[in-house]
Amino acid sequence: MSWLEPVQLTGAAVTLIPLEIDHIEPLQAAVMDGELWKLWYANVPACEQMENYVARAVESAAQGNVAFAVRLNGTDRIVGTTRFYNVDEINRRPMLGYTWYAKSVCKTGVNTECKLLLLQHVFEEKHAIAVEFRTHYFNRVSRAAIERLGAKQDGILRSHQIMRDGSIRDTVVYSILQHEWPAVKNNLTSKLLSYNRGGD
């Protein structure tokens, strides 16, 4: 039995459902909303790549790397995906990423609630020691979103990966530690209240 297993996580606005092959078409529709695969610094699949993207994520779940489809509770619409990956079971340290959403739900509180559900599960139910986040140095939107969660930068892995266009990626590494979780939880909960009141 893996340390992390597929589980459904339900919040007020979104439900995270273990990713399945049936989610390919809804995710193709979601990725068309904003055409995020056109961002050179982002690892977002194009429509024609979605079948392989989902199949590989589902297969990887057997190794404890749990991927989720993000569903809006009000409409049952699938609006994105996120996952725990490169899970270090011995040290109770997963990475959290491969996150993208339809443009129409960005800046609506969806990401905030998703991260609250995921972090709450892994810290409070699975007793994680740390959760790690990685993103492209030039992905300013992703870096800002990670920092808004309350994650702290650990460093930069220089010339870390070859991108699909052949450019070399510097990877920025962030983490949230177990003892930091209560304050991060308060931060995320406060942000959700602000969204619900119509704040930014």
Overview of this structure, please?
The protein is an alpha+beta fold and 200 residues long. The chain contains five helices and eight strands, in the order ββααβββαβαββα. β1 (9-10) and β2 form a beta hairpin. It is globular.
Briefly say what this structure is.
The chain is of the alpha+beta class. The chain contains five helices and eight strands, in the order ββααβββαβαββα.
Report the biggest beta sheet as strand number plus sense, adding barrel if it closes.
5 strands, antiparallel
Task: Give the strand content.
Answer: 25-35%
Mean pLDDT: 94
The largest beta-sheet arranges its strands as: 1-2-3-4-5
- Known CATH architecture: 3-Layer(aba) Sandwich
Structural class: alpha+beta
Number of DSSP-assigned strands:
8
Number of self-contained structural domains: 1
The ordered string of helix (H) and strand (E) elements is EEHHEEEHEHEEH
CATH-derived topology = Aminopeptidase
Measured distance between first and last alpha carbons: 41 Å
Broad CATH class: Alpha Beta
Return Rg in Å: 16 Å
**Can you tell me the CATH superfamily?**
Gcn5-related N-acetyltransferase (GNAT)
